[in-house]
Write a structure and sequence with these properties.
Blueprint: H1 5-16, H2 25-38, H3 44-53, H4 55-66, H5 76-93, E1 99-102, H6 108-117, E2 128-132, H7 135-143, E3 145-147, H8 156-162, E4 163-166, E5 169-172, H9 174-178, E6 180-184, E7 196-201, H10 210-223, E8 224-232, E9 246-250, E10 253-256
Parallel strand pairs: 1-2, 1-7, 2-6, 7-8
Antiparallel strand pairs: 3-5, 4-5, 8-10, 9-10
Helix pairs in contact: 1-3, 3-4
The structure holds S-adenosylmethionine.
């Protein structure tokens, strides 16, 4: 292990706004150390200095740190529950629900939501909010170009209807693109949007410390509308949801319990 991780964390926070203390330390430190060694540095100080002078190195660091892996309809059985049960229920109270895809990475998740919502609403007249801390990932998301592999779980009719295949790449249609509003948002620092009928936040909570998670679950609850539902990742079941005034609706789906 390299020396003075504490000092490195402070400097990174000042430089990027990312508070590494809120991420599980062993896992994060192992990743960072291996990246530093791979770049032929053996010292946090010199690596940090290089980060401030070399944009490529900086972008690589942010990219590596944020772990952008994603895919369309990740865990398809849960997307089926979302489509068949959760969305129809929400639509009974609000036929134009406010949806937020938090930590959306390179766009597969919000675009999956948009395609699913096309079964319920006119996408020309509908917007989903999608946010991530990593501006590089958000830029990729806005381009909307994907590999076939990332589309494997997506219903075939969506692939046919919403993608143009150019060689080994699949470009998403303008209609779907235009239904997403992408923004930078840091779940640890920034104000959360309010009155959301559906918040999808998947495969990011696993990286945070227990303390950071408590703050975030409370923020998510406050962000939910009266009928709002929080959809989490398949390894991210919330233990004792009532601690955050959340109630389990189905495995991986939670609603606020009416208390603020
Ligand atoms: C593994 S991806 C998950 C993508 C997508 N939600 C999914 O389940 O396929 C994790 C994402 O969390 C984002 N992330 C990490 N820390 C964050 C923070 N503090 N605020 C917002 N997004 C964050 C990363 O940039 C990355 O894009």
């Amino acid at each position: 292990m390299l020396d003075d991780y504490e000092g490195f964390k402070e400097k990174i926070f000042k430089l990027t706004g990312i508070d590494l203390s809120s991420y599980k330390e062993r896992q994060m430190r192992r990743r960072i150390d291996s990246l530093i060694l791979r770049n032929n540095y053996d010292d946090y100080y010199l690596y940090f200095k290089a980060l401030t002078q070399n944009t490529e190195l900086y972008n690589e660091f942010i990219n590596y740190l944020t772990i952008n892996v994603s895919e369309f309809y990740r865990n398809p059985e849960q997307w089926a529950i979302l489509e068949k049960e959760i969305i129809p229920d929400i639509m009974k109270s609000n036929n134009k629900p406010k949806i937020w895809s938090a930590a959306c990475s390179t766009g597969e998740e919000p675009y999956s939501l948009a395609m699913m919502m096309s079964r319920f609403v006119d996408l020309n007249n509908f917007k989903i909010l999608a946010t991530d801390i990593d501006d590089g990932a958000v830029e990729k998301a806005k381009k909307g170009v994907y590999t076939q592999k990332s589309l494997e779980n997506l219903p075939k009719d969506f692939v046919d209807k919403f993608f143009t295949n150019t060689g080994d790449k699949y470009a998403i249609s303008e209609t779907v693109k235009n239904s997403i509003e992408f923004k930078h948002h840091n779940l640890l620092e920034d104000k959360y949007p309010d009155n959301c009928d559906l918040i999808v936040c998947r495969n990011v909570m696993i990286y945070f410390t227990e303390e950071a998670k408590i703050g975030m679950y409370n923020n998510f609850r406050k962000s939910l509308s009266r009928i709002g539902v929080l959809f989490v990742g398949s390894t991210e079941q919330i233990i004792l949801p009532h601690r955050y005034k959340l109630e389990s609706l189905k495995t991986f789906f939670y609603k606020g319990n009416g208390q603020v």
